[in-house]
Amino acid sequence: MILSLKKMILLCLIFLSFFNAKAIEITHGPYLQKAGTNDLAILWHTNKKGFSYIEYGENKLDLISKASIHGQFDANNSFHKIILTDLKPDTKYQYRVLTVDILKMAPYRVIYGDTIKSEIFSFTTQNKVFETFSFCTVNDIHGRSDVLDSLLKVGVKTNPDFYFFNGDMINDFTDENQLFNGFLDVSVKRFASEKPFVYVRGNHETRGSESRNLGAFLHFDDGKYYRAFTHKGVNFIILDSGEDKEDSNKYYYGLADFDSYRSEQEKWLQAYVKTSEYVNAKYRIVLLHMPFISQEFYDGEYVTPSHGIQDSQKKWAPHLKDIDLLVAAHTHEYSFLKVGEDNNQFPILINDDESIVKVEITPKGLKFVVTGTKGNIIDQKFIPKK
Ligand SMILES: [Fe+2]
């Protein structure tokens, strides 16, 4: 039977659309993020919308985890975040991420396509009791993924339990590709599918049209950029110092509200430092982007620090008397302030924009090593336990 011209064209279109349909792919990730003490968030992106889950387990992939929100499994999206909860302590797990292509999602008909699977990765959960461990921190990368790559190459050799990204990892946030090109993809290449990172917001991440969407690409417990967690008996507090200038600065166009945000954090901090998690910790370490300093080096001279630095120091420093170390960034200049050197009640380490810091936490104290992009050691110090 001879097909009509109309039918032939239709068949050709179906044939072409079948072969032109893009296969589903993982475009970014998976990357791990700390989520509480015994939980881990796993995030990835695909080129098409799908339905995602994780297969994981100790010796084989015999467990499945999906993200359930308001009674529905999360689906029909290209960004995937699943939090593994109630993980056993001090245990090595294998995992892989899977996304099923959703070809059609109608009210009464869902058509699934192919399933993409990542390779199998592993991660190890923390011991609940104190034992020697280390973490690494980098900051002020401002999208220079080549610099970050060199620093992470140094970092992975030290085998830390996790990493901090201490702010200004990208420049003013106007396009999601800045996250991938600026730091995420290179982190995945070096470590992030098997070791978590913890993100601390810097002042540059508060700027730009996408700045309110940062939380959509990363994991922040309870959706808050300021938070705390305990790792192997050591307590970590993360504060969000916000913008550096006054809220009334003309370049914020009436959209900044950081003074009240820093007061909100002060209120939280006041209550948090009374909790047993904080009080009973073996050590207490604070991470924030803008340091507590009395002078700032700007345009070749020392000047009074910006309003954001002064406001956070005034509101937060009095509640942090018992901490063992504060790790900051922002100045693009390395310095270490011993107790009392700048009227500070605790040691302050400020990392520059081209170094990685490894902090090792031992029963006798904190040892840190600051290393440059070529593996050159810039400084190392030991802070004895109080
Ligand atoms: Fe900064």
Please characterize this protein's 3D structure.
The chain has 386 residues and is α+β, with helices and mostly antiparallel strands. It has 6 helices and 23 strands. The strands form 5 sheets. Strands 1, 2, 3, 6, 7, 8 and 9 form a 7-stranded antiparallel beta sheet that branches. Strand 10, helix 2 and strand 11 (162-166) form a beta-alpha-beta unit. Helix 2 packs parallel to helix 3 (177-192) and helix 4 packs parallel to helix 6. The termini are far apart. The model has no long low-confidence stretch (mean pLDDT 93). Bound molecules: fe (ii) ion. Keywords: Signal. Residues 1-23 form the signal peptide.
Short key terms for the protein model shown above:
single chain, 386 residues, alpha+beta, Immunoglobulin-like, Purple Acid Phosphatase, chain A, domain 2, 2 domains, 7-stranded antiparallel beta sheet, 6-stranded mixed beta sheet, 6 helices, globular, binds fe (ii) ion
Number of helices, where a helix is a run of at least 4 consecutive DSSP H or I residues: 6
CATH topology heading of the largest domain = Purple Acid Phosphatase, chain A, domain 2
Please outline the major beta sheet: 7 strands, antiparallel
CATH architecture of the largest domain: 4-Layer Sandwich
Strand content: 35-45%
- From the N-terminal CA to the C-terminal CA, the straight-line distance is 92 Å
C-alpha-based Rg, rounded: 23 Å
Total count of strands: 23
| Ligand kinds | fe (ii) ion
Report the uncertain regions. none
Question: What is the arithmetic mean of pLDDT?
Answer: 93
Q: CATH homologous superfamily of the largest domain?
A: Metallo-dependent phosphatases
